[in-house]
Amino acid sequence: MVRQIYLITTGIVFTISIWMIFLWAPTEINQGQVQRILYLHVPFAWASMVAIIAIAFTSFLFLLTKNDRWDNLSQSLAEVGLVSAVVMLFSGIVWAKPVWGVWWTGEAKLTTALVLFFIYCAYLLFRNYFPPGNARNRIAAIIALIGAIDSPIIYYAAQIWEQNHPKAVVGPLASEESSLNGEMVITLLFCVLTVTLLFVGLVWTQYQTNKLLRSKNA
Amino acid sequence: MLKYVFSILLFIIVSQPTLVFADDHEDLISGVINAISIDDNGNVEGILLMMNNGDFVNIDIKSGDNPTEFGLENIAGDRWVGNQNDNGKEVASKLKDHQKRFAPITVLHEKGVAKEIVDMEKRNVSSNLNFLFACFAVAWIAFFGYLIIINGRIKKSAQNG
């Protein structure tokens, strides 16, 4: 019942967010329609950055308690985090071409975001190719703890190195100059909510699936 | 069921304006500068803008708090960004240059007071729709593709069980 309510709510919120992105939010003056990629890029960037912090937290709890539940949750978060990182990188690449004139540049925020993608890949590849057991889970937890350092670096990269990537448009780092107008910021926050709901739903489904597979393999 | 959902979505889409350019209280206009009003200190007070339909619009230029921001290019394409608080004479010089060259500008204004003045966008901003489409299409394919993968795993484990 709860699952069905969650699914319906997410579906409604998703539909509203699509309407807000394409019909309600105003068109940005300088970039035109392509600026609407912001409403996809930022929420998925948020999801991928929060996921690695959450993995570090659950990995820490696993190291502390040795409870397999935390390890399962870390794995589920990593898989959904990887999908989010792929969407973040792809949307960023496609947005960069019309705005900056290049698909990719070696600037700080992009490079640290790419590092995050590699951290997810390394974490999941390690889990898949290392023989299952306590040693694998412990080393994977340590990889996640080290990998989580990248998340705050990505967040502060535009402030620290001041290169091409725009500074934060919402949140504590957003300045008067870089902040969005009312409708744009509402749309962005609503899209963050939508992606968060999708993210939690996917992690939960993945967690249940992994639990089932683990119990069969045990 | 699906056809009702699509009908409602279609109704919402066609009943909405497809393009909104700015906040409700703000307005965007484009045109060439017909006249420039400059005070004794050399600061620009306002401009008379001729739009492509032949109408004239008076636009006030603001200094002090929340001054009008400019982003104007010279003939070589070098962009100057600033306001009258930074350099009032440069603002006047750039606007005169645009007036001489009949270079079109775009003004974001609120009740006739300019907030931003920039060179008129020559390219069609809508032409980047292919990038927008590609981005959303691939993102949602990746996302729902992942859902299908999870679903496959569930089915596989159910069959094995």
Structure description:
- The complex is a heterodimer of chains A (218) and B (161).
- Chain A has 218 residues and is mainly alpha-helical.
- Helices cover 77% and strands 0% of the residues of chain A.
- Chain A is built from seven helices and no strands.
- Chain A is globular and about 60 Å long.
- Chain A starts with a helix and ends with a helix.
- The mean pLDDT of chain A is 86.
- Chain B has two domains: 93 residues, OB fold (Dihydrolipoamide Acetyltransferase, E2P) (Beta Barrel); 33 residues.
- Chain B has three helices and seven strands.
- The two termini of chain B are 34 Å apart.
- About 5% of the residues of chain B have low confidence.
- At the A-B interface, helix 1, helix 3 and helix 7 of A face helix 1 and helix 3 of B.
Shape category of chain B: elongated
Indicate the mean pLDDT of chain B.
78
Number of H/I helices of chain B:
3
Strand fraction of chain B equals 25-35%
User: What are the secondary-structure elements of chain A, in order, as H or E?
Assistant: HHHHHHH
Largest interface: A-B, 39 and 38 residues
Binned, the helix content of chain A reads over 70%
Q: How helix-rich are the residues of chain B, as a percent range?
A: 25-40%
* Distance N to C terminus of chain A: 29 Å
What is the CATH C level class of the largest domain in chain B, in words? Answer: Mainly Beta
Oligomer: heterodimer
Mean pLDDT of chain A: 86
CATH architecture of the largest domain in chain B: Beta Barrel
